[in-house]
Predict the structure.
Amino acid sequence: MLGHLLTPLLMCVGMGLAYLGAFHAPQPHDLRVDVVGSGPSAQVLAQTLHDNGDGALDVRTVPDRETAVTALREQTSFGAYLPGTHPELLVASASSDTSAMAVEKVFTKVAAGQDAPLEVTDVAPVPDGDPTGQGVFFLLVALSIGSYASVAVIGGAGAVLALRVRALLATGMSLVVSLVGAVFAGPMFHLVDRGLGGVWAMSWLYSAGILLIGVGLHTFLRRWTTLGVMVLFVMLNFTSSGGIYRPELQPGFFGSLHAFWNGAGFVEGVRSHVYFDGHALGGHLLVLALWLLAGVAVTVCAGLAEARRRPAPAAPAQEEESEEEMEEAVGV
């Protein structure tokens, strides 16, 4: 009993370390923003903001508004300030609402120092059904829970089944989970207003990767499988996905995971597909595909391991003995 109680205790410790470590004190670091202009005043403003930010901001100058908008739509910048008598701030809330808020906070102070009201223009807004821009993250949570909970059921109730049957169940369940996610994202909550087919496809890739990895790991981890998949797909996954805070507002460990973890691939892939005309979508799809391939590889390894564990079939008994053996047996 005490051994089994160790699992929820480790979950408690792990969730606290992951969530509080990633979210309790978001602070910008190297957050890229642009100052629009090429004259001395723009250069001085950019250098002053960069120096006073103490590493929080990466401030550069761009020659014109069009260049600034392109950088925002390509997610290489998270804000662009146009100084003047009527200053304007460009943001892209679809990239990250929290990053847009952080940038707005900085440049509201800059405009106030010039005694001028700041006009904020959102060049990549989110749909009305997702006013905070975090709906994609909560969709990720729903897909993840449906996937790793299915791992527990298949590993437990389906333990007597052959691995190929369990793998087929995992694949089928991932399809069901992804369809539920598509209903949530589209007709039910209107989290996205276009590109629903692509959102469904990425949901399936994401869910299938989790299920196949989990089913394969169950062969090796047994009762520790639940803890293992929670570490992979909750503790490290949700915190590095960028759904609440992008890497520029997080500690370096979680920011580094954002580059290749499957949750980040899903969140950024959906954002790219729906809001940014597919810019850099291929890289995010590659991340999801590699996790799916990892699931296939783990499942294959599990199949080989289970095959080695099976007892060798007994050799068939010889049906007929030779005449000499029979004579020896009866003592003739």
